[in-house]
User: Which sequence fits this backbone?
């Protein structure tokens, strides 16, 4: 079934059928003062050739630096087959077609995606994806308020060790709906959230606790203790996870005695290129008892009149085309193309391949941290187990060091000094499976030079 | 023709209310409403202890066709939601005035109950709706 716009002939036939002069006439009843004016700040259109040259020039300006930055978006190897398949005409539509009678292939793919995410996170049900990891967390907090019917406070505990960009988006998505977010400090030694920091909330009405694993510093939280503490205190637990890490870490469905209640995160590490920051996709899974409070589309498997298996959207009574203002969310779509890439990526690498990716990330980042920690003027901020990132503390401002490294073709990490002023000169570094031992050696040598030359100067 | 028991009170939005001997009010949706909705697949009944106002949407009934709010006929405190509907929403289709009850409310003011439609007025409202 083609998903293409109307031709000029189609439009003329439709206008003739309803007796309208032209398309503009259809808008006659809207007062002129309410009509949107042309967007003056948008530059004039360019041809495909012109855009191609402009983008090549801009990509050239980026160069091909060695990348050691993570902080929420991660450089992984994407097998060439992934995007070769995604860009097939059947998948490559500007619109995600949901009509069951026309789109069994797309619907089956979304169903397989949901099955994979449910399995990876250890939860019963998944939606067909959300916009990105940060907005998925915003939606998860709103969902927790709906799902926790005994809690009236709309207060949610958010560790400072949760990605600061996610915390900003939380405020933007849910702050206007009267949710209150309370910041939990991290332990200065381990860089993690402790149950001791939660004690002062015992006995209070708190809707949910957010737990990010691994947290923004790359450190592994004691998810079992945090989950059990929150459940005992009558809160729901919202897990924010890196999907690749789940190939080697305990899935949120098994955290503590009964598991997390809502799981969300950024899906980019699963086959989506960094691409200047997006588009990415968010994912969300939950327990079956909360499925009707979950936002977004859900594809189900069913049988048709003849008993043949088929796929269709299900539980649509949660959504705004049926429930209007009382819908669970204004999200009535999904990130179809990126989910297609993630599903194909997971199919190609398989559970064992994903575990290899994850464990190689752990090994390479451990080598990176050890190599950089030997550089004079550099020390590791936190003890304890990590996934594939770590915070380093420098004896001088991070910005100048990163600029000197960039001049040597190295993106040295993310300067988090402004987000965490109490840490001082803090640099968040990452190594995935794409960084070889030689790459790490190159970085360590360059950093040694930069730190020495600056010391001499 | 749908069943409209003479001893109940009704809302135009198709809820029924029964004044119990202990002064509480049991609420459900009418036989007409369950017929119009079709097979129910999910019911969200309110939690005991919740304060509700007359006319406030406090339960949701979802059928294969649509999801609808159930409005409280009176102001008061919910003293029970029908837990059986969690696993058996079809009780509303089978027995809308009995096992398919949705919630019990302790009213602040019994006069609100007296002001609801009686069976005759509700039948008239139904007749007006179909014409």
Assistant:
């Amino acid at each position: 079934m083609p998903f293409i716009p109307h031709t000029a002939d189609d439009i003329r036939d439709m206008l003739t059928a309803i007796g309208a002069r032209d398309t503009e006439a259809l808008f006659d009843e809207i007062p002129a003062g309410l009509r949107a004016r042309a967007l003056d700040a948008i530059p004039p259109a360019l041809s495909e050739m012109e855009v191609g040259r402009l983008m090549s020039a801009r990509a050239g300006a980026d160069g091909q630096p060695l990348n050691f930055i993570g902080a929420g978006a991660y450089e992984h190897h994407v097998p060439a087959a992934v995007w070769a398949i995604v860009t097939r005409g059947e998948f490559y539509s500007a619109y995600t077609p949901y009509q069951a009678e026309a789109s069994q292939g797309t619907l089956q793919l979304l169903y397989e995606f949901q099955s994979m995410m449910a399995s990876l996170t250890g939860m019963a049900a998944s939606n067909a994806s959300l916009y990105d990891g940060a907005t998925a967390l915003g939606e998860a907090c709103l969902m927790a308020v709906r799902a926790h019917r005994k809690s009236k406070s709309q207060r949610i505990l958010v560790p400072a060790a949760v990605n600061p960009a996610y915390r900003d988006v939380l405020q933007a998505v849910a702050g206007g709906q009267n949710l209150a977010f309370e910041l939990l400090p991290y332990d200065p030694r381990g860089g993690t959230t402790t149950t001791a920091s939660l004690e002062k909330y015992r006995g209070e009405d708190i809707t949910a606790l957010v737990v990010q694993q691994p947290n923004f510093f790359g450190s592994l939280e004691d998810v079992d203790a945090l989950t059990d503490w929150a459940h005992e205190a009558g809160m729901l637990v919202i897990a924010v996870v890196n999907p690749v890490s789940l190939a080697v870490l305990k899935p949120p469905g098994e955290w503590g005695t009964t598991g997390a209640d809502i799981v969300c995160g950024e899906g980019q590490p699963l086959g989506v290129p960094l691409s200047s920051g997006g588009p990415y996709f968010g994912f969300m899974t939950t327990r079956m008892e909360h499925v009707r409070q979950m936002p977004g589309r859900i594809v189900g498997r069913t049988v048709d009149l003849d008993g043949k298996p088929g796929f269709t959207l299900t539980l649509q009574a949660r959504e705004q085309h049926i429930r209007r203002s009382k819908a669970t969310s204004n999200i009535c779509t999904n990130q179809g193309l990126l989910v297609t890439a993630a599903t194909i990526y997971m199919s190609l690498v398989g559970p064992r391949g994903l575990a290899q990716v994850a464990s190689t990330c752990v090994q390479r980042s451990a080598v990176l941290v050890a190599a950089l920690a030997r550089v004079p003027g550099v020390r590791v901020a936190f003890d304890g187990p990590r996934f594939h990132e770590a915070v380093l503390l420098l004896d001088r401002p991070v910005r100048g060091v990163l600029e000197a490294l960039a001049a040597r073709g190295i993106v040295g990490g993310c300067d988090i000094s402004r987000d965490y002023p109490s840490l001082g000169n803090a640099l968040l570094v990452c190594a995935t499976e794409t960084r070889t031992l030689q790459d790490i050696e190159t970085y360590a040598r360059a950093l040694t030079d930069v730190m020495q030359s600056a010391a001499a100067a | 023709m749908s069943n409209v028991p003479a001893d109940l009170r009704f809302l135009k939005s198709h809820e029924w209310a029964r004044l119990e001997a202990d002064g509480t009010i049991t609420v459900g949706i009418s036989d007409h409403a369950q017929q119009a909705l079709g097979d129910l697949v999910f019911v969200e009944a309110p939690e005991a202890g919740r304060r509700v106002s007359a006319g406030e949407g406090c339960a949701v009934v979802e059928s294969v066709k649509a999801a609808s709010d159930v409005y409280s006929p009176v102001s008061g405190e919910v003293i029970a939601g029908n837990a059986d509907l969690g696993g058996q929403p079809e009780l509303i289709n089978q027995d809308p005035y009995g096992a398919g009850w949705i919630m019990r409310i302790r009213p602040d003011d019994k006069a609100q109950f007296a002001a609801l439609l009686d069976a005759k007025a509700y039948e008239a409202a139904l007749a007006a709706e179909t014409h």
Summary: The mean pLDDT of chain B is 94. DSSP finds five helices and ten strands in chain B. The two ends of chain B are 14 Å apart (CA to CA).
